[in-house]
Amino acid sequence: MTDTTTNPAAPVPGAADTGAATGQTSGRPDTWASADRGQLIERAEVIVTSPNRNFVTLKITTADGVTGLGDATLNGRELGVAAYLSEHVVPLLIGRDASRIEDAWQFLYRSSYWRRGPVTMAAIASVDMALWDIKAKVAGMPLYQLLGGASRTGLMAYGHASGKELPELFDSIREHQEEGYRSIRVQTGVPGLESIYGIASNKTTEGNEGVRYDFEPAQRGAFPAMEDWDTRAYLRHVPTVFEAVRNEFGPELPLLHDGHHRMTPLQAAKLGKSLEPYDLFWLEDCTPAENQEALKLVRQHTTTPLAIGEVFNTIWDFKDIIRDQLIDYVRGAVTHMGGISPLRKTMDYAAMYQVKSGFHGPTDISPVGLAAQMHLGMAIHNFGIQEYMQHGPQTNQVFQQTFTFTDGYLHPGDEPGLGVSLDVDEAGKYPYEQAYLPFNRLADGTVHDW
Ligand code: KDG
Ligand code: MG
């Protein structure tokens, strides 16, 4: 664990005694008089730990000793967010009123002048999450109650089945069903390609025996691993896989697939169309969505539902594609969209267009981020599905969690707050280890989207 706390308990700003807004005076934190001085932020610690993988967590403590946790993990760029938090955010938090969540969010977003971007928004997200955790603990309620109460009894979750060849894939689907999953993402190898996105290592390989294993793309080491890619081979192969899966598992099982940003608009349109007979729940990230116009072309050619947005940072990234009804599912993560507050706004906006949630839930969303998403998913009306890759055993020892996964449905539990606590001693056993996501090269050596 790396504790990069820069501000030990700082004195509460005296000007707050006036009962008026203090404004920005000579280097003092901007805060207002709090009705309850016990809610002023006394400590904020940035905790970097690497049990099964790297995680960045913000822990905020109020004068009353109430603590809140926020997830700031940005896969492969963790220390960038840790430094942003320690150097630029933690000093602004000390002495602020923890109960003023929206004000803290707006202050961090607007006062920095430089807006958006994954580093900034992951840092702001962690503050937002931690403050909601504190507010719910002070209220004595699980967070979903504060967000409006439960709209459902549980969250349908999907897991990641994969296999290089069909027999392994079928085994993996069956294993997921045995664990309770009722919706399944399907990724396979492509003939001629050595290693590609989404295929878990074989459980029976050395070191993995007996271990439940979902695909974990970040690999420890000083340089990203190289994978190979050929879109034409992929487009030829994927429909045959879904045909085989439908023949084996029948028409009912909801199936998902992640294109992981690799296709041109025309290729994506072609894939969507060729998958229509297999009735996918969604096709994810069919194109790299910087060019959002691309989705118009895809939409003109296929009725396969589209999900996008795991790399988006703000409601602005979703605004036009929701308004133009180019997507069906919002793949944003609480951790990368600036927190619970802005993702809630995005989902309320999406509801006007019948667009539902499909929050990003791979293992690089920490247990804290996952819990925050579960509470939000419980409360909103337009919940769709929750991605759920299971964290490893060491991670689950560092982060104690109250959520349940029963018969394919997640529930965040009913403890006050988010329902996650962090064992600092356990976290300390796992110092940060450099790790990167892989990258792609085509046969001629060109770097391709990964
Ligand atoms: O950090 C990158 C991963 O979270 C991403 O590759 C996982 O695409 C992903 C998914 O849909 O879970
Ligand atoms: Mg994805």
From TrEMBL:
Q: Recorded GO terms, molecular function?
A: mannonate dehydratase activity
Write down the InterPro entries for this protein, in alphabetical order: D-mannonate_dehydratase-like (IPR034589), DgoD-like (IPR034593), Enolase-like_C_sf (IPR036849), Enolase-like_N (IPR029017), Enolase_C-like (IPR029065), Mandel_Rmase/mucon_lact_enz_CS (IPR018110), Mandelate_racemase_C (IPR013342), Mandelate_racemase_N_dom (IPR013341)
Locate the transmembrane regions by residue number. Answer: none
What Gene3D superfamilies does this protein's entry cite?
Enolase-like C-terminal domain, Enolase-like, N-terminal domain
Q: Which SMART domains match?
A: MR_MLE
Record-linked Pfam families: MR_MLE_C, MR_MLE_N
Q: Annotated region Disordered: where?
A: 1-35
- Low complexity: compositionally biased ranges: 8-25
Q: E.C. number, please?
A: 4.2.1.8
Q: What EC class is this?
A: lyase
Tell me the keywords, alphabetical order: Lyase
Question: Does Lyase count among this protein's keywords?
Answer: yes
SUPFAM superfamilies noted in UniProt: Enolase C-terminal domain-like, Enolase N-terminal domain-like
Q: Where is the Mandelate racemase/muconate lactonizing enzyme C-terminal domain?
A: 167-305
State the superkingdom.
Bacteria
State the name under which the record lists this protein: D-mannonate dehydratase ManD
Please give the organism: Curtobacterium citreum
**Gene name of this polypeptide:** manD
